[in-house]
Amino acid sequence: MQREKKTVTIDQLEVLFRKCRIGIVADYRGITAVELTTLRRRFREKGLDFKVVKNTLAHIAAEKAGREDLTEIFKGPVAIIFGYQDEIEPAKALSNFNRDLKTALEVRGGFLTDRLLGAGEVTSLAKLPPKEVLIGQVIGGMQAPIYRLVSQLSAPIRGIAGVLGARINQLEAK
């Protein structure tokens, strides 16, 4: 690769490292060119970037972006999936791709904006429910004690209303 082309690649990777919220590093060996094209298209549709990178260029770009901690996961032939909005989407997209095409991009690890992720953590991210569901679960958890309190406070009143209603029915029956 020519020096100018390498410089451009390093600069592009540096921008991606700075801009992304999550990155997943995977081994792409064993994937055909057709599958890689399909993978790139699927990721592009979801607003993700998929880059096959040379380790030395990725090392330099990560260091320039202030992410020296990333250099340890660049071993062997790797590709990086960059996510910019949702932290869970790249892991889910990769998991779905592996499941649908019955191929295995081996996850080596990943990184969030502030920390490294192991392969197991990336896999567990893929298993999380969507963001909207998580928000709903948190809100439901916050509302549950309030609903129980209201139910407990209104129980005596319901009891009295039930007794009065039964007494009215009893008097009307006479």
Please explain how this structure is put together.
The protein is α+β, with helices and mostly antiparallel strands and 174 residues long. It has 2 domains: 3-128, Alpha-Beta Plaits; 129-174. The chain has helices at residues 3-19, 33-45, 55-64, 89-100, 119-127, 131-173; strands spanning 22-27, 49-53, 78-83, 106-112, 116-117. Strands 2-3-1-4-5 form a 5-stranded antiparallel sheet. Helix 4 crosses helix 5 (119-127).
Order of helices and strands: HEHEHEHEEHH
Strand content: 5-15%
Assigned CATH architecture of the largest domain = 2-Layer Sandwich
The shape, in one word, is: elongated
Arithmetic mean of pLDDT: 85
CATH topology of the largest domain: Alpha-Beta Plaits
Treating each run of at least 4 consecutive H or I residues as one helix, how many helices? 6
CATH class category name of the largest domain? Alpha Beta
- The chain-level structural class is alpha+beta
User: What proportion of the residues is helical, as a percent range?
Assistant: 55-70%
CATH superfamily of the largest domain: Ribosomal protein L10, N-terminal RNA-binding domain
Unreliably modeled segments: none
The end-to-end span amounts to: 102 Å
Major sheet strand order: 2-3-1-4-5
